[in-house]
Amino acid sequence: MWREMTTVGNPSEKHKLQRLSLPEALAASLRERILNGEFQPGEALVQEALAAEYECSRMPVREAFRQLEAEGLIETKVHKGAFVSSISPDEVMELFELRALIECDLLLHAIPKMTAADFIACQEILGELERVYTEREMARWGSLNAAFHRRLLSPAERGQSILILGGINLQVERFVRLQLLLTEAFETAALEHQQLLVLCRARDVEQAIPYLRDHILTAGRELVAAMKSKRKF
Amino acid sequence: MWREMTTVGNPSEKHKLQRLSLPEALAASLRERILNGEFQPGEALVQEALAAEYECSRMPVREAFRQLEAEGLIETKVHKGAFVSSISPDEVMELFELRALIECDLLLHAIPKMTAADFIACQEILGELERVYTEREMARWGSLNAAFHRRLLSPAERGQSILILGGINLQVERFVRLQLLLTEAFETAALEHQQLLVLCRARDVEQAIPYLRDHILTAGRELVAAMKSKRKF
DNA sequence: TCGCGCCACATTGGATCCAATCAACATTTT
DNA sequence: AAAATGTTGATTGGATCCAATGTGGCGCGA
Predict the structure, then answer these.
(1) How much is the pLDDT for A231?
(2) In chain B, what are the domain boundaries?
(3) Average per-residue pLDDT in chain A?
(4) How far is the CA of B87 from the C1' of D29 (A)?
(5) Do A204 and A69 contact (CB within 8 A), yes or no?
(6) With 70 as the cut, is the pLDDT of residue A8 above it?
(7) Do B94 and A19 touch (CB under 8 A)?
């Protein structure tokens, strides 16, 4: 079942097929399970148990742990084990503000370079997003949402910034998914995405930038509010 | 010799002593050697050789590799090994612009919160920087420079942003060190640091922010120019 | 002589085994 | 009875061993 992703075939990538080692595949699977909330913050991840579950030795698990630790998803204490890392609502808000900062800068660079193909691709993702929304698959919704932002900003051709953004998204993703279960943030997000795309088509930088900033920051505020009220964190 | 850092004793941290596992210590040592340019971009790192050198088995080396890979310092191809990752001048410039973006935002938050103690601490680091400069130890210069920026921005109390900044600095650090060998960028940097601190003392946000931005961006431009002229990258 | 394929070696990837450390429980002592 | 301490079980950390894969060299044939 999890084996299906031992090789990630990304069709849009130009023939650069990448093979995953077992530790990398494990890390991918564990990452997904953490983001889905199957492993709660603070929970201990035991090497032996996971090794048994994935039917491999403990060593690939250990290497996967190192990777996840570097990504900030888990923390490991020597001779004590690995624990799903936690993050405070304030820190989540800070990450959203960082995202706003970086994405606005990227959009500024991207808008002048956008082509018709870019708009079409973005529109396509939005369609997919809407389809997924009606079926309540928020695991896919989160990654599609990230994909939309990434695609929208890709004309800026700033790989390093995109990379950093990916890291930030990774940190907040699990809380976003949780919130989606509780609120109706989908719908406003869908509308805002459409409006954002309209502004970009019109090359209206003056409006698009603050709009994007607001889109991100209000999403952040809503999420943090939900976190603080639920007290489950 | 490298054993001296198996436990990192940071005296300013309040008694929170952290123990390093062998892989972590190895990663720290290898990271330093990469930043120092001992391992050139593209160069292959062989597990067996390093294991012999550090007198341990290959396994801790492999785990250290995973960590360094996640940090972006090396790339590993399955069944082919680990290679010191490279980075183009354009990407370096992008990272500097990202740094400018984030640091300016941080400074904006930091200035109103700065206390006398903060100014003193910064001034102290600047003194240390000057002392190190006269003795041409650029390995320490780089980390002290980062420490100054970190200390200057720490009143903002934005741990996540600082963390991201650390990652960005890691990427450009090795090129900064190389450039320092070639240019006289020390001196202007020292002056600019002093001036920046003066502006912060005066709480002159209007001047301090653009000044910091310029400080970072010109440093970036000079570095990139040096990179492109030397063609050693 | 050049090109293709096969084979051996070197290197990485993964599994098993042993040692070190921690935590919890039981025992003893005050 | 409470606290301190010893001891045992569980879990992680590290080393050695075996398997898989990639690379370079050699030979064979056109």
Answers:
(1) 59
(2) 2-84, 89-230
(3) 89
(4) 46
(5) no
(6) no
(7) no
State phi, psi for A183 to the nearest 5 degrees. Answer: -110, 180
CATH code: domain B89-230 is: 1.20.120.530
Nearest chain A CA: its distance from B109 CA (Å): 12
The answer to whether A56 CB is within 7 Å of strand C is yes
Fold designation for A2-84:
Arc Repressor Mutant, subunit A (1.10.10)
Contacts of A217 (CB under 8 A, 6+ apart): A96, A97, A100
| pLDDT value of position A226 | 87
The neighbouring-strand residues paired with B8 are: B18
> Phi and psi dihedrals of B58, rounded to 5?
-75, -20
Rounded CA separation B169/B167 (Å): 5
| Nucleotide nearest B81 (Cα, C1') | C12
Instruction: Check: CB of residue B75 under 8 Å from CB of residue B69.
Output: yes
> In sequence order, what DSSP letters do the residues of B33-60 get, joined into one string?
HHHTTSSPTT-EE-HHHHHHHHTS-HHH
Q: Map tokens 């931005």 to a residue.
A: B213
- Say how many CB pairs under 8 Å bridge A and B: 70
What integer is the mean pLDDT of B223-230? Answer: 86
Q: Is the CB of A19 within 7 Å of strand C? A: no
Q: Does A106 touch chain B (CB under 8 A)?
A: no
Q: Which two tokens mark B144?
A: 């002290």
CA B1 to chain centre: 22
Cβ count near B48 (within 10 Å): 10
Do A65 and A82 meet the contact criterion of CB atoms below 8 Å apart?
yes
Contact of A164 with chain B, judged by CB distance below 8 Å, is answered with yes
Q: How far is the CA of A86 from the C1' of C24 (A)?
A: 26
Mean pLDDT (whole number) for B86-97: 96
Give me the CA B146–C1' D15 separation in Å, rounded: 38
